[in-house]
Amino acid sequence: MAHIKRRVSDRTGKVTYQVQIPNPGYPAPDPKRPGKLVPERVVKTFDLKRDAERWLNDQASAINRGDFIDPRDKAKPFRELVATWERTRKARLAPKTQERYDGLLRVYLMPAFGSTPLGQLRRSMLKEWFAELDVSPATARKIQVALSSVLSEGVEMGVLRENPAARLKLAALPRREMTVLTAAEVRALSEAMYRPTDRLAVYVAAYTGVRAGELWALQRKHIDLDGRRLIVERTLTSVSGRLIFRNATKTDGSRRVISLPTFLANRLAEHLATLDPDPNTLLFTGPGGSNGRKAGLGGPIRHSLFRSRIFRPAVVAALPPEKHNLRWHDLRHTCASLLIHSGASILLVQKRLGHASSTTTLDLYGWLFPSTEAAMAGALDAIYNAADAENVVPLDRSEQVA
Q1: For position 41, what pLDDT does the model report?
Q2: Hey, what CATH topology would domain 183-339 get?
Q3: CA 210 from chain center: how many Å?
Q4: SS3 at position 272
Q5: Is 0.70 topped by the overall pTM?
Q6: Is the distance from CB of 192 to CB of 318 less than 8 angstroms?
Q7: What is the pLDDT of residues 146-161, one digit of tens each?
């Protein structure tokens, strides 16, 4: 039974109120005392009786709801939960994500909350901290996501009742205006590339919408010329300066099969004819190291170098000044634009680009759809005019009067 006991100090005469409740976790191994069980009862002391009664009522309600948290868990510092998160959840993240989270924890979260007891990490406290954080909205959002990942693991491990960092309302991210190319501009950009393989890479990016990492990870076996299809099932990323191939894409929806237009299938066929017949041969390669260059071989493309040394000069040479801000990722946006202007629905665009949901696609490209409004209005005009041309006799409403 839970109860409150009044205690008086023999030395000072101070009156305190001790609350004891059955420990819902008993009997279970105590992680802090190998070979021992957690205490059979949870004990907490208060200076005021009303505080003791309030705490007892809160714990009784939590036990009834099944979300009781041992006070010893609430007293654990944030750094202990981070250590648990690293063992249980971090390993399931992509290497690039692990690297980013490690940096955010080291620079921002551990200095701020490393020694803070988990029970003190309340939503109001986090909102104030983010409000005073002197970083860009994009960086603040990344920090919030990393913090939420750690605290979410705390909820799953039973040391937190809820995640106080989940769905925090932070400053809105400034929407960067995307630059999209016309088909003629895609052709001009491709022709400005020096190597034939780089010209082909521009076409593949602009007409399939694959991400840079997906593009550079493509192998010979991912091109099905008979079915005119391109298969996306892995990606290339840079982690701590090392290039890593992963047999997984950004999301489950990113694993996809993309139909190829005839012109692009023909260009890919010509390119495949120049490659080693091994199905694992990379579709696109860089010059590689000195030994590889002498042997006429190439290594995986490091996108950061490709972007600065090859792509950027071609952009400046081929495109008008107002489009000199074009990023390689904008070729993905260009694909969406070309699809939408050809009449594709949001659902079809979503599946081709590998977005997790159509909401993401609509948020990114909804602004392109108003350009089809005039066409739809014209179609409605045609329907109306066709009905009018049938010379339908209007109903004489006087006949309906009883």
Answers
A1: 73
A2: hpI Integrase; Chain A (1.10.443)
A3: 16
A4: helix
A5: no
A6: yes
A7: 999 999 988 887 788 7
